[in-house]
Hints:
This is NAD(+) kinase. This protein has 9 helices and 23 strands.
Amino acid sequence: MVMKMDYKVKFKEPATSKEIAEEEEERRTRSLNAPSPIQQFGPCGRIMKNSAMVMQIQDPASQRLTWYKPPLTVLVIKKVHDASILASFVQLVHWLVHDKSMVVFVEAAVLDDTLLAEYGDFASVRERLMTFRAGTDDLTDKIDFIICLGGDGTLLHASSLFQQSVPPVMAFHLGSLGFLTPFEFNNFQEQVMNVLEGHAALTLRSRLQCVVLRKTSNEDNNKKKPTTILVLNEVVVDRGPSPYLSNIDLFLDGKHITSVQGDGLIVSTPTGSTAYAVAAGASMIHPSVPAIMVTPICPHSLSFRPIVVPAGVELKIALSPEARNAMWVSFDGRNRQALQHGDSLYVTTSVYPVPSICAQDQISDWFDSLAECLHWNVRKKQKQIDELSDMTHSSSDTLEELDANHHDDRPADT
């Protein structure tokens, strides 16, 4: 397939998956700083190299998207069976296929929607769409960039589809909250073209690598393989259906830090700090800050406050020996499972972030989301002082009060 494009891009030979895997161990160092994230996103996207480096980590403000070669494949994600987005979805894929001659991937469940038959011009596009099934088909190295249509859940879904390198993600706000979806759909053609031409800032949203290790006995010859899941928002440990308090031990780099007695614990990324964590009383952290947030859920203690730890540490979560019940863990609200005595959950920062494309820049997008979605620091403005009238009244009132309240009890001079 030949792609017609009228822009120029500097091409560089992309690193192979094997080379990336070999470099990962060198890059993943245990330190106070976050592991340096990979610079390549999908087959042809990467961060433009810049000399402004701080401790071998590129200055976040200078992170901009560039391409090895013109992107040819795009994954379009929308919420399944959401009729309100169908018109926008049809319009977008029609433009990508016919006008931009791109290969478009969509989830097979999306095309099962019977309401698509109402869009007559979609029939000519449907035959040219590539389909996949989440959890079954591997999209590694097949997608150049991603377009999300909907709310924040579509970005979380995109993250779950790529458990290693994630292609650049462009998210359009067509859902309810839209904290992670900065683009408006009105002029989508112009905005997508800016991305294809490499005119876009990036926010590297760190993810957490979560590893579940199950207890095995000496007689158990078939050792259970560890489960590894990457999450964009948070991993939540709670007491599940049990009426008893959770009793959870928390370790940091092998050292026991504290025991959590309460409803549970939230371990979140800076991106996830504005999700479940902020509802549980945590602070909000800009997504470019290399950190991990630990937030208790309804702790049975007046002094257990949320804490922020360096992104490079490894957290271990396990049931305390005195725990009366199992603990339940979920990853970005999915894959919920029980952890018993002897099971452990290890959490650290992954080297595979989600490169989220900015509508404006890292700072403007984030503060706009705080204001529009969470109404951060919204209050009525204090009225301005009328200096000529208010200050005159204030000074005269003060003098009258002093005269009225002044009683000199000293004896008169003789």
